[in-house]
Design goal:
This protein has about 400 residues and is of the alpha/beta class. Helix content is about 35%, strand content about 15%. It has two domains: about 1-70 and about 230-400, Alkaline Phosphatase, subunit A (3-Layer(aba) Sandwich), CATH 3.40.720.10; about 85-225, no CATH class. The chain is globular. About 50% of the residues are buried. The protein binds zinc ion (2 copies). The site of one zinc ion has 7 residues, from helix 3.
């Protein structure tokens, strides 16, 4: 199952109703479309603009309306942290504030020398409530994850990160009437204040000041989340599933789903990723696993940049890499699914509610006979229009992994 993040697009009048997928030279995808079934999928439902987190839950067959429990938990899982039921995880930034708590730089200059030492000082802080504890782990550059642990916590609290510079940090407040939410907000505020005290007085920040650098003097938190209570994919369908992905949020979801993560050299999660190495690793992994999930982020990156040509180039690179799929995968025996988690139209520069093309080829799928794979041709395809949520059960049925409903 190949998911090209943000590959779907929207016909643009200014471009004669073409899209990167419709103009890209992609003989391999087109051949698979012709020899398989094509259609459209709605990531969540018609009219819903999804985040990649929500969209990936759906693609893996988990109803996001039921199982989406915030970004933080998935992000923590993606960073390789162990999360337990009841924990609340936050995405954090080292940031710079002045004495009035006005945010000067949400990233404290991004690359922070001595960051791990600063993180250690944060980890040594103690909360006044002895029944609550936290784990603080730096991830990439100025980013970190914080996990609150203890009884009676809730993810229904607001961010302390104002998401903007030039305004004061925010006090976290409860987003519902529950006591757990009020308590969690209080703990988060205490954590934030203490981080300012500890970091402001840290010798690394004194050194930074001497060198004219911004101090990394506070931890801002956002996106609280808990572990989604999903049934592991392996248990649900009795399969052995693996995943190839770099984006932390996708890695997090795959880990939560119990999939084995396969690392690929040269995979970066960006435009400079090694497309061939990723596809090749996926083809190899098909020999050992019932399901191999391959995530490629690059098309979404080009889309957010609003770069039509770059996005077209990404699709062509993916197609080139897919020559290995055509060569090595026996469609009389194995299945290929190619789709996008959501559309990210280049003209819109963000995720949209548009349905995205999907292609399914394998032993018992009809052939579409359509020789081109695009948003427009997919709308006339033999697979019709489905919800992303239904893709996994359909595939698992074909693999004989689902019991009949009823007698
Ligand atoms: Zn996405
Ligand atoms: Zn995106």
């Amino acid at each position: 199952m190949i998911v090209c993040d943000g590959m779907g697009d929207r016909a643009d009048r200014a471009r004669e109703f073409q899209t990167p997928l419709s103009v890209a030279k992609k003989a391999n995808m087109d051949a698979l479309a012709r020899d398989g079934s094509i259609g459209l999928i709605d990531p969540v439902a018609p009219g819903v603009r999804p985040g990649s987190d929500v969209a990936h839950l759906a693609i893996l067959g988990y109803d996001p309306c039921k199982f989406y429990t915030g970004r933080g938990g998935l992000e923590a899982a993606g960073a390789g942290l162990r999360l337990y039921q009841g924990d609340v995880a936050f995405r954090c930034n080292f940031a710079t504030v002045d004495a009035k708590m006005v945010v000067k730089d949400r990233r404290a200059g991004r690359r922070i020398e001595g960051r791990d030492e600063l993180a250690e000082a944060v980890s040594e802080m103690r909360l006044s409530d002895p029944s609550a504890a936290f784990e603080f782990v730096p991830t990439v550059e100025h980013r970190a994850v914080m996990i609150l642990r203890g009884k009676g916590l809730s993810r229904k609290v607001s961010d302390t990160d104002p998401h903007k510079e030039g305004i004061p940090i925010l006090r976290s407040i409860a987003e519902d009437e529950e006591r757990a939410s009020r308590r969690t907000a209080e703990i988060l505020n205490e954590f934030t204040e203490k981080s300012f005290k500890v970091l402001s007085n840290h010798k690394i920040n004194a050194e930074r000041a001497e060198r004219g650098l911004l101090p990394a003097n506070i931890i801002l938190s956002r996106g609280p989340g808990t572990l989604p209570p999903v049934e592991l994919l392996g248990r649900k369908y009795c399969i052995d599933a693996a995943c190839i992905a770099v984006a932390p949020i996708v890695r997090g979801i795959c880990r939560v789903a119990g999939m084995r993560l396969i690392e690929v050299q040269g995979a970066t999660g960006g435009l400079d990723t090694d497309f061939k190495a990723k596809v090749s690793a996926a083809v190899q992994a098909m020999k050992r696993h019932d399901l191999v999930f391959l995530h490629i982020k690059a098309a979404d990156v080009a889309s957010h940049d609003g770069d039509f040509e770059k996005k077209t180039w990404v699709i062509e690179k993916i197609d080139e890499a897919m020559a290995q799929v055509i060569e090595s995968v026996d469609l009389a025996k194995d299945y290929i699914v190619l789709t996008s988690d959501h559309a990210t139209p280049v003209a819109f520069r963000d995720h949209s509610e548009d349905p995205v093309p999907v292609l399914v080829a394998g032993p018992d799928f009809d052939i579409s006979g359509i020789t081109k794979f695009s948003e427009r041709t997919a709308a006339t395809g033999n697979l019709g229009r489905l919800l992303a949520l239904h893709l996994m059960p359909i595939m698992m049925n074909r693999l004989g992994k689902v019991e009949k409903f009823g007698f």
